[in-house]
Amino acid sequence: MASVDGFIGVFDSGVGGISVLRELVGLLPHEDFVFFGDSAHNPYGERGVGELRELSGGIVDSFLAEGAKAVVIACNTATSAAAAQLRLEHPSLPIVGVEPALKPATEHDPHDRILVMATPVTLRLDKFHRLAREFGSGSEVIAVPCVGLAHRIEQGDLDAPDLLELIEGLVGEYAGAVDSVVLGCTHYPFVARQIRQVLGDVPLFDGGAGTARRLRSLLSEASLLSPSKGKGRVELRSSLRGPGVLERYEEFFRMKA
User: Fold this and answer.
1) pLDDT of 36 over the 80 cut
2) Backbone angles phi, psi at 203, to 5 degrees
3) Which of 8, 109, 183, 210 sees the fewest Cβ atoms within 10 Å?
């Protein structure tokens, strides 16, 4: 049975989920978090659904074996592919996913044309299409599969010219032609500045803040909020072995928003 003293497990295909982790820590500063970046299998956005469910299931099982009281899937692709199955397998475990922030984008004026940047798998699965039908009926939703972008962000060196060139090649044709942009991958908030360089000063929406609010609500309902008044612990882990990996994770965690 989950304990208020347990930690919250957070995972993604790599550093991208750290953008969500930062929102979680900001809203729930007294909680302990363990972040696992599966960089050895990055990018998730170009893998099959079966493999994503297997990878996600293994990570959640590891968290539970160590005493996790809740899990956050800090990845749009893994949420779309595996969240429903994980909730069936662990009905008493609070599991929160992240999804493209179409709803707040459609509530912002103007919202005639909304650009959604996401991985190919996220855009292909039913979850995105349901969101588009539910919230995007009054807007033109332009979905762009950003092949290779999450993997490039994973490498760091975000000011390098090749990264800006990649974004230009993916979405440059929409510069000045959209009202807002939905960042449908948790890696993308780390290059918000570069996206605006290409598209102009448009509003950007991502699911991190909503995910944090949902987690707080579920923990409160289950009486699992930490009673501690002190600052919680944040541990960063990776499936990728090698020099500098965790240092890069730390750099992303400390990066200015």
Assistant:
1) yes
2) -65, 140
3) 109
Q: Which of 21, 70, 75, 219 is catalytic?
A: 75
CATH hierarchy code of domain 7-97+208-254: 3.40.50.1860
Confidence of residue 134 (pLDDT cuts 50, 70, 90): confident
User: Strands across the sheet with 204-205, in order?
Assistant: 140-145, 113-118, 180-184, 204-205
User: Is 75 a residue of the active site?
Assistant: yes
CATH classification for the domain delimited by 102-205, as one of 3.40.50.1100, 3.30.365.10, 3.40.390.10, 3.40.50.1860: 3.40.50.1860
pTM as predicted: 0.92
Q: Where are the domains of the chain?
A: 7-97+208-254, 102-205
- Both structure tokens of 8: 């919250």
Q: What's the token pair of residue 81?
A: 């592919």
Query: Is 146 among the catalytic positions?
Result: no
**Mean pLDDT value of segment 196-204:** 96
How far, in Å, CA of 216 to CA of 239, rounded?
27
Structure tokens, 73:
């899937």
Tokens of residue 18, six digits: 């750290």
CA 200 to mean position of chain CA atoms:
23
